[in-house]
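Narrative of activities, Objective 1.

The group set out to show that a structural description can be obtained from nothing but a protein's sequence at a throughput compatible with the screening campaign. Below is one input-output pair from the validation batch, recorded exactly as produced.
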Amino acid sequence: LPGIVICIMALAIVIVSLFVSRSNRKAFVNKKIIEAFTKQKEESLMKQNEEYESLVYSIFPKPVARDLMKCQTEREMTSESLKSSLGSLDLHTARTFGRTVARMHR
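Output recorded for this entry:
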């Protein structure tokens, strides 16, 4: 009788370990897939950013392009609370546009 109980417990341990192993393998594969997609998305965004910068530099004179890129960076770094205040954002955009037009006419 004790031998049968030990065999049943050993079989239960083997079955549970198989399920745990299978779930760990699936989690590992899913993690690798997510990492691959994240890396692919980052590379795509970097390429898109480089294309955007080269387009801006090809359209505008260098000082204007640098100013636009600087303003774009500042705008991206602005917190969400500042973005919600439309008045100050519109004033900033108007100033940037005025400087850009002034530089284009130099």
